[in-house]
Records
---
Amino acid sequence: MANFNKVLLIGNLTKDPELRYTPQGTAVVNLRLAVNRKFKDKNQEWKDEVCYVTVVVWDKQAETCNQYLKKGSQLFAEGRLQSRSWEDAAGQKRNVLEVRAERVQFLGSPSGSTKVSADVQTEPSQEEASTENVWLSESEDKLNENQ
């Protein structure tokens, strides 16, 4: 049986990046991305649909995203779907499906400056593989409760 897990998205950030560090010092950032779709319904009227996706970026690429991106920034993210489960402070089991970025490319230009485009790609480190679920914090539990 064949398996394939690849996600390609272009969208805009709905809020500033959220940079954190694992206990081992590896950077990880959450990017909340809005991906829009415009289509005609069965009555031939134009409709807009928005899908909100969390894109998780690791290591040096995470620090670069935190440095250059802000709410409203447009970006291209390439990665894979990843699901995580944990128990929150209240003992409730939580699950989330997000995109684990392999490559992020900044699109557009920051306001008030010349065009900036960055294409950063990293391979997952051994530390990242063993600490993916360690960086969760109470603030992320609260964020996930509101989704």
---
Amino acid sequence: MASNRAVVSVKAARAFRHLRPWCWRTDLLESPSGDAAGAVVSVVDQGGNFIGQALYARASPLALRLLTRRPADEERVDDAFFRRRLEGSIKRRAALLPRDALRLVHAESDLLPGLVVDRYADSLVLQSLSEGMDAREGLLCRLLVELTGATRVVARDDGSGRDFEGLAREVRSLHGSGEAVVDVREGENSFRVDLLHDMKTGSFLDQADNHLRAGQLGRGRTLDCFSYHGGFALALARHSEEVLAVEQDEVAAERLRENAARNGRKQVKVQTANAFDVLHDFDRAGERFDTVVLDPPGLAKRTKGPDAAMRAYRELNVRALRLLQKDGLLVTCSCSGKVTAKAFEEMLLAAAEDVRRPIQLIERRGPGPDHPALGGLPETEYLKVFFVRAL
């Protein structure tokens, strides 16, 4: 008879009991039998003491993702279980629902490991980042349509995280038909989003609150680097006399121009260029700005690791601080999960020392409340945003 029990090491058992919801395959002493994709298994320690029920991955280095600490005779992991979890996740965002673009499910943080669901108007984008959720995508789509009334659901299963899980990358429609392009609002501005082709699930929803906050504080002549579709640039245009938005990707830059025109932001000018090069050229030319935004992609993913990423972040921030007028505002971001908030702040202080310029740390921010972090899982605290005044 097939066993649905997984036995974990002392180290993994201790981690589970300290609220960490993962177990690496190297800490799996006895694997469950059977080959069902995304099976739910009972997790026990070496003494047979029950720990919880988890999703088991057959190939991923991350073998177990905890679902519940209650045994099966108290809480069955069935269709009703997933419906309750989805209902709870959506209910926790009730105060935010006047927004027409937000995250409804934030994976482990909402006790639905490996599942991301974003809402764009009456459409949903679903991402399965674990074998367990991938195997249940049809069920999850049906439940989400019932709970939200969504007219369209798209699967954006094309992220690099699926490589880690041994899952194929794909993009497909799960529910509804027609063009998967929607218009959503962020504060005063409207943005066009292509759910099938734009980055992430269509937009950088985790930065929405930071876009708006920058729009409240930014003034004067503004430089927005790594602008993508203009989330920071259009918000900053509210009080800025001139906004130069720099975006290297030509398709994204063209969408940025369209978004600026749609919202009547004539002061937003778009330059299709590499932000590192632009900062270097402006520095050499003695250009000055009242506000500078740095929102680069996850540099630790694109370099040889955290050390190389920190060198790149330092270079960016040194040049930005040199470009700022007295009392100018710097908004500097990192979405690299491998870079801690402490390390990022230390880098920022080192950059200030390099240019011999005192700085005020105005605000330390992260993603909005629709992207909560899970206690005990620091990997969910990936986004760091510092608002800094250069004196």
